[in-house]
Model the fold of this input.
Amino acid sequence: MSKFSRSFSILAVLVSLTLTACNKSAQSSTEDMTLGDTKAKVKLVEYASASCVHCAAFNNDVFPAFKAKYIDTGKVHYTLKEFLTPPNEMAAAGFLTARCGGKDKYFSILDAVFRAQNEMFQSGDMRGPLLQIAQSSGLTEAQFNTCITDEVALKALQDRVERAVKVDKITGTPTFVVNGKQVASGEVTLAILDKAVAEASK
Done:
């Protein structure tokens, strides 16, 4: 990767520190982001990383159809659980930016991050595309810089990741769990999720 801005250098240090620390789980402002009817019979959980190419492929190519078919119709309640994969600072910055946009804008910002992922990998510039996404969502550059270097928010993110690893036994992304049962991971098609949802709906 090319040179990061000062804010990304700070973020990289913070990520490194929290990844090696033994943190207690923070309970405030650590909720997972969700979509759909909470009363839906089928609960689908996706563990995803903003720097995971397979997660981006799912977001870009499969999720829109899945959302229209199941989430928007009230058949599935969807939860995204954040995970960190290399480069960890990119994944963390993507999630922190999405959360700073607020719950109403979280998924639209994360969608933009996934769609800009290839550009960031090819150019080596993470900050530029993320700043542009943040600004298009109403954040100022100062707010963005504060957002991606927020130690409290980063610790909360790392706590969520630690729970995914230690409690949920997640080893990679994307991983999909339907009604408590892991049903798929890696490259996932709509057909695979169709089958999982159909079985869970019985």
